[in-house]
Amino acid sequence: MPIDDEDFESESIAGDRQLQLFTDRHEFTRRFAFYLNEYPPREQILYFFGDGGNGKSLLLKHLEFHCCKIFPSQDWQRLREIPESQAAEVANFVRNAAPKTYTPIPAVRHDFGLIPIKEDKPQDRFYGLLMLRRNIAETTKKHKFKFPNYDFACFWYLLNKGESDATLSQLFPDDVIQLVTPAIETFAGFPVVAQAVAVIKGIVKLSGIKGVMKLIQQRLGVSDEKADEIRRKDIDTELMDCLPKLFAGDLNAAMAGKNKPERLVMLFDTHEKMWEEKRNSQGATFWYQDEWFRRLLRALDYKLGIVVVVAGRDCPVTQLRWPNASKFPIPADYIDAQLVWHLSPADARDYLHKVEIYKADLADAVIKYASVNPADNLENLQVHPFYLGLCADAVLAERRRGIELLASDFARIPKLENKTAELTDRLLTYVDREVRSAVHSLSACRAFDEDLYVKLGTGCHFQASSANFEMLTGFSFVWESQKRGNNWYRIHDLLRRLDADRDNPKTRRAHEVLEGHYREVGDAGEAIFHANRLDWQRGVEEWKEVFDEALDKSRYKECEALLEVRDELWIKSDYWLGRVSRSEGNYYARLARYVEARQEYLEAVAACNSALLIAPDDINALNNKGNGLQSLGDLQAKLSEFEAAKQSYFEAIAAYNSALLIVPDDIEVFKNKGIALKCLGNLQAQLSEFEAAKQSYSEAIAAYNSALLIAPDYINALNNKGNALRRLGDLQARLSAFEAAKQSYFDAIAALNSALLIAPDAICVLNNKGNALRGLGELQAQLSEFEAAKQSYFQAIAACNSALLIAPDDICALNNKGKALLSLGDWQAKLSEFEAAKQSYFEAIAALNSVFLIAPDDIGVLNNKGIALRGLGDLQAKLSEQQEALKNWQEALEMFNRSLAIAPNNDWTRNRRDSLQKFLDNFGDDTVSS
């Protein structure tokens, strides 16, 4: 049962030399055979762990291509009675069984270490699972597995989130495309099979998501109850947590059906890649990295014949601590952890025979040289597979030159820690200079093909030829990188790490060439990766600068491309780790992916705390700790976690104050302190703590003035001072201090205009100016200064439009434009300018809908759209357009409900929702009685 409840043919392996030379692991082959042939099926996860280079990935390939076989019961009974000490007999029988003597079993392999390319992101909690879905569909094609609930949830996610420009065929298997295409074409009126998800989103915008999803639901065969359950879930939190369980539920149902294989094998490789630079994180931060994967493993029903095999460097019980995970733990009883150790001398000799190294004395010398315990007796040696492969490569390379190495050539054995370096050096002395240079150059690549090899030959001054490329790709340390496409390769990580640690000049030169090449072709992410290898800080600084700019300009695809290389960047200081983590958090918060945002902000604060343990007076660390806490507070306030938000703001201000005690005239710290105080004031005003809010705003303005005394043209201080004055004006207007409020708005606009004189295209300043003008307009309208109010509203909309000319997808500008149009509509309705008011409401809703295509779970936008729809409905009811009014009121209710699903503690939203619900209930009664 799931932990949550306490004629298939293998593909061709021609050309995979490593797999053909696979040696040993008899005990693991035997154990795997038990998982496939025993009844009832074992209810455990088979987990192979061990050091890098020990052959875990090759073992998984061996199991996939040679061992996915179920034997007739009489044959299996004979095999299972063979003692474990004779595991080789069982393993050889399994590997070499004739095709007609067993039933082949479908197997799918998911490699977490593959380089992310577009929607193929193996570690991603959404796209990684979708990759697995496609691969299972291909593997089980003859069994026609269906995933109706999971597929429906994926469509719901994609059409709501608006993140993907992929075609449907890139995301879903053919059978799903054939099912849902007629539903989508019903609305589109043209063929859409080859069209991107963006086209479908456009159809949704015109025809409504409910209608499209209803037809998709019917085509997939999803029950109304299940569809409603999925639609009720918050997209970023509840649904994302639920996707692995939906996937597993559909897979369990398929394996419980009639047309199903006796077993289904799921192989997961390089599990350690889920962590990369975050391996040293602690607690919930550590466990979060593979949370979706544990959720999937918990929900699979292993008694139905699902066999899961995982390979990674760390023991899942003692090192990854799966049984102790704070969320979705996997009990130790469900884990069959197997240490993948080194090869025995007999197995190493078998490998050498396969590569045609037959001389006994040479083989013994190689085996001793490649072992991790060369001082022991020959029969007790533990032979490292990676070292053995390098030794064999050296012998064969020299043989190609007509020279046979002797046992004496391997007589001097280096220390274990030096063995990779010496073996690599020795191998490369046996190949010509051009191949040697190519190996060191190609180790700079994350992946390479022959074209890139030729490019490096030109830039690194070695002779690139097809013959040498063929020789290179035949070495034991060169592996295929299939996800990059056909004929792409990668150098083994141990060898790449060696060249990096040595700062090999040929590798450095290759990084220089590759940085220039990728800048030339416009691939910023790859260029920054190579810049980072040349100078880690330069690369990290550029990554953050380019990422922040892309986010500021709402170029989200560019952000995604940079995130794909983020985990491979060298970040050698806690200070920079904290800055990068905060930038990542800002990206996720902007797209309303609140779970990831919280995680990154917590990591940012933790990194700064680590830096401060070493240097308590580090100004930069204190400043960035404050920034991380302020961002965390903003997120908590948005999610109505008010006390937690207050605490974060207080801690942020304390960090800034500590910095200012050390450097009293730091304008950056003054500016950041002002932002934290302004955010605290916003929260206090929201909680009706008016005097405290006034005090916070005043202190914020004072902090900005301190910065401006030192640097009068400091744009950030002018911008944020304007923002704080506008917020103070909002509060004063709320407290009926009208003249004071007017003055605050005028002062705010003046500060922002000063900033725009210096930087006319500053988007954030234009946004804040729009907000200040809208606030002034609302106050003027309240005071019956109609013409002045009208002018202020139009100027506010113009400021937002100026920002959108620079960044058309800027969420803040779109949201602020919607709010300004909404205020204008309300004012026009009061003046009985009904048609103008309608137009303003429609334009406001259109602007807010544009945000939903980018960030469908933005709480503020959900609330603003709800208000706009309510206002439009009220106006339509006044004009006796009852049906249109009812439709807009109901949609407004849906917006408030969606907002509350994300932030259930928001009393303001709940009051709006409850008031509208009561109104609709009474409206229905009145309609019936009349």
Please provide a brief summary of the model:
The protein is mainly alpha-helical and about 950 residues long. The protein contains 42 helices and nine strands.
What does this structure look like?
The protein is mainly alpha-helical and about 950 residues long. Helix content is about 65%, strand content about 5%. The strands form three sheets. Strands 4-5-6-1-7 form a five-stranded parallel β-sheet, with helices on both faces. Helix 30 runs antiparallel to helix 31 (about 640-660) and helix 40 (about 860-880) runs antiparallel to helix 41. It starts with 16 loop residues before the first helix and ends with a helix. Residues about 5-15 and about 190-195 have low confidence and may be disordered.
Provide the helix percentage: 55-70%
Largest sheet: 5 strands, parallel
Q: What general outline do the C-alpha atoms trace?
A: globular
Arithmetic mean pLDDT: 86
Number of strands: 9
SSE blueprint and pairings:
Blueprint: H1 17-20, H2 26-37, E1 45-49, H3 56-66, E2 69-70, H4 73-80, H5 87-96, E3 103-104, E4 107-111, H6 127-139, H7 148-161, H8 168-171, H9 174-188, H10 197-207, H11 209-220, H12 224-232, H13 235-256, E5 264-269, H14 283-288, H15 291-299, E6 306-312, E7 335-339, H16 345-354, H17 360-369, H18 385-400, H19 419-429, H20 433-442, H21 450-460, H22 466-472, E8 478-480, E9 489-491, H23 493-502, H24 505-521, H25 524-534, H26 536-552, H27 556-566, H28 574-590, H29 594-614, H30 619-638, H31 642-662, H32 667-686, H33 690-710, H34 715-734, H35 738-758, H36 763-782, H37 786-806, H38 811-830, H39 834-852, H40 859-878, H41 882-902, H42 907-929
Parallel strand pairs: 1-6, 1-7, 4-5, 5-6
Antiparallel strand pairs: 2-3, 8-9
